Q: What sequence folds into this?
């Protein structure tokens, strides 16, 4: 039993499995051979574990292939390479050695003590717009979850043009005549690896939760409709994002046209020439003005049809879902530009954005103009799609919605705290990793919020229900209001009264 106590806070009691007195060795046996990790502070860690063959040479833009066996005991004490990517996001901190196409590695953290029963499993997909990121980032570190009696994994997957390029020649190669979505195939391959190997780390393959933030959350919503991932997980967590946003996914034909244009920009006249190009050269082409942002494709295979149709028909994985977003996913300037935050300027922006529907928009966002502009910017970018995912999934399975509103504190360099909880600002709180981020002056209130959010997440990973002893009751979203858990210094369910906003976006989406 682990208890967190902070001034003026109820004790949060997190039930963890019983452990035997004996410790487990730092060696585990997985597909490919034996691996040796490390043991520290009650946690065994295995880093840089291959779950598929390196997707290099002729395997570039191929579905992930089986792991290549090795002789002896393979060291698993350091992170593997991160996927090929450009330096896109300043807040990313990597512990991996560098970028490389040879990037299909995962990391496992598990209790060092021998558990008396199989442990629940968390598989976390990193964010980064499907173009950047890495499982080595300290904010995703799995040690804190392992101390809660959970086997935690982070997974690397191919990104950008390496992970999501579609091309007619690529489509012609495969038996299903589709291409793109190799990054999603990598994630599904990692989940299959978990099913076959997680028992070696004390994990229960029947109790796997997939989770992720931003692009990782998009990935979770995609794996819930990916036939390759069917039956490979029992629960899902999404933080800020889904494939059900305002813009539909590109069709295979559209994505193939993008691929042909990219090949032309790279100076390749065939797929063979494109495969033969150095990886760095492909990144240089991606960097050129006018190049597309490669992402998830409605390819007819991994994503069989429009995700909105699949979710409306209730054809997604019928597993419990915990999902939500932050109070300041986007700033008001995304709507108002450099104009002052006034009702007149907001009305002018609505007129420009929505024309004949501007009055409808004004009714939906008829409250404090600074909050309304911030909310509209957030909704247009990532919040509406997250809400739609929650709303549709709640019709077929237990679904829990959160609203994270704790701003990160002042930085150690003296930068003031943000006005709200910015995009990705909840990750360290949810995974118990505040101490891994040295940028901020974390307070006891921050640790209190982290204990609460990690407690809810850990309970959900164990049981499919976030509730536990000593914690405010969190109802499912179709329970009579209040039914959304606002996570902050004083966490409690509340009634957000925001459906009118999202129904406005529904109407916009349905316009021809």
A:
């Amino acid at each position: 039993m682990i208890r967190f106590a902070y001034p003026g806070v109820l004790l949060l009691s997190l039930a963890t499995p019983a452990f035997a007195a004996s410790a487990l060795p730092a060696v585990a046996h997985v597909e490919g051979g034996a691996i040796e990790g490390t043991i520290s502070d009650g946690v065994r860690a295995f880093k840089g574990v291959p779950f598929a063959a390196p997707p290099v040479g002729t395997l570039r833009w191929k579905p992930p292939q089986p792991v290549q066996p090795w002789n002896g005991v393979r060291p698993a004490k350091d992170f593997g390479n991160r996927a090929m990517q450009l330096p896109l996001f300043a807040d990313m901190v990597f512990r991996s050695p560098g970028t490389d196409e040879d990037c299909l590695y995962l990391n496992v953290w598990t209790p060092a003590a021998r558990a008396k029963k199989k442990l629940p499993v968390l598989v976390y997909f990193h964010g980064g717009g499907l173009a950047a990121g890495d499982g080595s980032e300290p904010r995703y570190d799995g040690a804190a979850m392992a101390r809660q009696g959970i086997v935690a994994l982070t997974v690397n997957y191919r990104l950008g043009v390496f992970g999501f390029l579609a091309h007619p020649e690529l489509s012609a190669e495969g038996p299903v005549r589709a291409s793109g979505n190799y990054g999603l195939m990598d994630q599904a391959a990692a989940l299959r690896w978990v099913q076959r190997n997680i028992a070696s780390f004390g994990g229960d393959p029947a109790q796997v939760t997939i989770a992720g933030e931003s692009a990782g959350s998009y990935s979770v919503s995609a794996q819930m409709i990916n036939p390759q991932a069917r039956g490979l997980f029992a629960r899902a967590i999404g933080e800020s994002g889904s494939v059900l946003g305002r813009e539909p996914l590109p069709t295979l034909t559209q994505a193939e046209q993008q691929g042909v244009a990219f090949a032309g920009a790279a100076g390749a006249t065939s797929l063979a020439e494109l495969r033969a190009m150095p990886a760095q050269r492909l990144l240089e082409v991606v960097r050129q003005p006018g190049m597309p942002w490669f992402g998830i494709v409605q390819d007819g295979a991994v994503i069989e049809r429009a995700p909105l149709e699949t979710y409306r028909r209730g054809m997604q994985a019928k597993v419990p879902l915990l999902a939500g977003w932050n109070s300041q996913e986007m700033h008001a300037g995304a709507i108002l530009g450099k104009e002052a935050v006034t009702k007149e300027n907001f009305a002018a922006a609505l007129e420009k954005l929505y024309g004949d529907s501007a009055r409808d928009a004004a009714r939906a966002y008829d409250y404090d103009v600074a909050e309304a502009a911030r909310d509209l910017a957030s909704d247009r970018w990532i919040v509406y799609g997250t809400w739609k995912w929650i709303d549709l999934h709640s019709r077929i399975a237990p679904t829990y919605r959160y609203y994270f509103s704790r701003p990160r504190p002042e930085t150690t360099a003296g930068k003031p705290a943000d006005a709200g909880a910015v995009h990705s600002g909840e990750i360290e709180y949810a995974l118990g990793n505040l101490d891994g981020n040295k940028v901020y002056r974390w307070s006891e209130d921050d640790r209190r919020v982290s204990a609460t959010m990690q407690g809810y997440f850990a309970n959900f990973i164990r049981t499919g229900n976030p509730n536990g002893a000593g914690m405010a009751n969190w109802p499912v979203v179709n329970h009579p209001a209040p039914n959304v858990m606002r996570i902050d210094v004083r966490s409690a369910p509340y009634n957000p009264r925001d459906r009118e906003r999202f129904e406005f976006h529904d109407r916009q989406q349905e316009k021809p």
